[in-house]
Amino acid sequence: MPRIALTDxxxxxxxxxxxxxxxxxxxxxxxxxxIRGAAVASKRWWLTLGLRVPGTALPGVIIxxxxxxxxxxxxxxxxxxxxxxxxxxxxxxxxxxxxxxxxRIIIGVPNAQEWADKINDAIVSC
Length: 126
Description:
Blueprint: E1 3-6, E2 10-14, H1 17-23, E3 28-31, E4 35-40, E5 51-58, E6 62-69, E7 72-79, E8 83-89, E9 104-109, H2 112-124
Parallel strand pairs: 7-9
Antiparallel strand pairs: 1-2, 2-3, 4-8, 5-6, 6-7, 8-9
């Protein structure tokens, strides 16, 4: 399961080697000023993903990789035994998004509401 780390100025999602292989992606780092908020994803969140380019998907078991849909670029790593945490980022055209390739990140964690609260508290306290 991906590990999330919050530093003073970044959100880092650490993936183990198997997760990196499934997602066709390395660790994800996001500047703190690009984070707009976090919440537990809706019940049918996977319907909003769009086209997987590249990644792995076995419906109901694992969804991993980069997903594109119109102006939305999402990085996803979710497995059946986790709750989806959705982190909304600044639009790619925004100056705050400099260096950020995504408009949202969806990560499967065992305690999505706790992480959402922690991320939202961190962006409010800045």
